[in-house]
Amino acid sequence: MAILITGGCGYIGSHTCIEMLKAGYEIVVVDNYYNSKPEALNRIKELSGKEFPFYECDIRDAEGLRRVFRENTIEAVIHFAGLKAVGESVQIPLTYYDNNVSGTVVLCQVMAEMGCKRIIFSSSATVYGSENPSPLNETMPVGAVTNPYGRTKFMIEGILSDLCVSDPDWSVVLLRYFNPIGAHESGHIGEDPNGIPNNLMPYISQVAIGKLKQLSVFGNDYNTHDGTGVRDYIHVVDLAVGHVKAVDYALGHTGVEAINLGTGVGYSVLDLVNAFIAANGVDVPYVIAPRRSGDVDTCYSDPTKAAELLGWKAEKNVEDMCRDTWRWQSQNPKGYNK
Ligand code: NAD
Ligand code: WQD
After folding, report:
1. Which terminus of the chain is more exposed, N or C, with fewer CB under 10 A?
2. Which alpha helices (DSSP H) does the chain contain, by range?
3. Per the residue annotation, which of 149, 177, 203, 233 is the catalytic one?
């Protein structure tokens, strides 16, 4: 019996592979390397000391997926595979709908065909839109999303919920991540973005290592304690452990549950920059720049449901997040390209 991890070579997937293996699960990984490198697999195997089957396969390839299910006994799927760049999704929406939405439909069709009806899905806090006040909880209305990426997450949540209505055997956990940052404490795996990073933490660490000149802080006139945007940053290893707990849960329940994975605490852009400088003794030059379109003042979670349902809460603090990010970045200045 094994757990299939789609997108298992990516940032969150690679850390989840390690935590699943550590918890004693067998895993099978599928990835098409669209946004990841084979080296990530080598590092997962080195760190865990374990072997597992890997298939270079696109989740839209039904026949490829059937082979994975025929050659392994899959109990449940953790589904990370997808495209995730908000700005890019505005430029190429059809690519996002095809990859994320159609890909999930094909995956679920093959799962149903093969009798595997348990799925943990990578959703996002983005489904809460900009109208709900923080702390965000799972009873709040979702769907007022502002970009195609967010719409794919909202649509997939709906598709998976519909499946549970159609067939009571399905077990679906919709994990709504807040802002994952950090890296494995070994410094051997971490986030390896292509090109110039869109997200704050990889940008900070590339400035610190001298790859980028300075950080642009997008707006200092928000309604927050220092005027810069506030987010709920969560260590990627805590997030990965949340997936182990979600699998434990899904194996014993049916129906659909949406669950936030966040810390419940918000930090501003300048809080994070200062924490990074303090934790690592490095310089992070920045300038104040105009607001980025689509950004909200404040976004953080109410993490109560995850504690109650999964027995999970985030353990690592912002210093851990900054220190581990820097260990990965400084040991791997070119990411997985060595
Ligand atoms: P990532 O890009 O590092 O990982 C995604 C992996 O999926 C990559 O290895 C990529 O090659 C693979 N992939 C993409 N399309 C595929 C396809 N059609 N077939 C097979 N493999 C495919 O991203 P991540 O940060 O690890 O995010 C994982 C998931 O979590 C995504 O679904 C993302 O939308 C979601 N999420 C991420 C964040 C975040 O801030 N990182 C926040 C909320 C939700
Ligand atoms: C964080 C804060 C920026 C870059 C995004 C997606 C969301 C989810 C996580 C997938 C904001 C500020 C950033 C920079 C800055 N992904 N910032 N300078 O926007 O909260 O969330 O990633 O589901 O859907 O929207 O994260 O890291 O881009 O920004 O000042 O160069 O940092 O304005 O306040 P965000 P982020």
Report:
1. C
2. 11-22, 38-48, 62-71, 86-91, 93-96, 103-114, 148-166, 200-208, 236-252, 269-280, 304-310, 318-331
3. 149
The residues pairing with 267 across neighbouring beta strands, listed in sequence order, are 231
pTM for this model (two decimals):
0.98
Distance, CA 187 to ligand 2 centroid (Å)?
23
Beta-bridge partners for 56: 31
Q: Is the C-beta atom of 217 inside 6 A of ligand 2?
A: yes
Whether the predicted pLDDT of 308 surpasses 80: yes
Contact between residue 118 and residue 75 where contact means Cβ atoms under 8 Å apart: yes
DSSP string covering 262-276: S-S--EEHHHHHHHH
197-216, pLDDT tens digit by residue?
A: 999 999 999 999 999 999 99
Among candidate residues 118, 70, 115, 110, the one with its CA nearest the CA of residue 251: 118
Query: CA-to-CA distance for 261 and 179, rounded, in angstroms?
Result: 9
> Whole-angstrom Cα distance, residue 112 to residue 204?
43
Pocket test for ligand 1, best of 80, 201, 238 (most atoms within 8 A of CB): 80
Active site residue 149: yes
